[in-house]
Amino acid sequence: MLIAQAASVTASEVIRAELAAARAAGKPVVVSMGGMAASGGYWISTPANYIVANPSTLTGSIGIFGVITTVENSLGFDWCSY
């Protein structure tokens, strides 16, 4: 049974990859969501053949974090002052 909320990104991906490998090897993957399967718990569930959840299971919300690298500060540009 999966009961997870804000899990480590690395741990979630390691578990998801192992479940995906099990499925690729022909093993059925069934996820049973408990009271909550959010964030990493939701991600872990994605390779499953079947997902079972109660009507009251709180699920969803894969957080996104990104970094956009720019050179403006390195070049001395200050876009906030004129």
Explain this structure to me?
This protein has helices at residues 9-24, 40-44, 72-75; strands at residues 2-4, 30-38, 50-53, 58-60. It is of the alpha/beta class and 82 residues long. It has a single domain (2-75), classed as 2-enoyl-CoA Hydratase, Chain A, domain 1 (Alpha-Beta Complex), CATH 3.90.226.10. The protein starts with a strand and ends in a 7-residue tail after the last helix. It comes from Escherichia coli.
Number of spatially distinct domains: 1
How large is the count of helical segments?
A: 3
Can you give the helix content as a percent range?
25-40%
Radius of gyration: 19 Å
Task: State the major sheet.
Answer: 4 strands, parallel
Query: Which second-level CATH architecture applies?
Result: Alpha-Beta Complex
Sequence stretches where pLDDT stays below 50 over 5 or more residues: none
Would you report the number of β strands? 4
Features:
single chain; 82 residues; alpha/beta; 2-enoyl-CoA Hydratase, Chain A, domain 1; 4-stranded parallel β-sheet; elongated; serine protease; protease
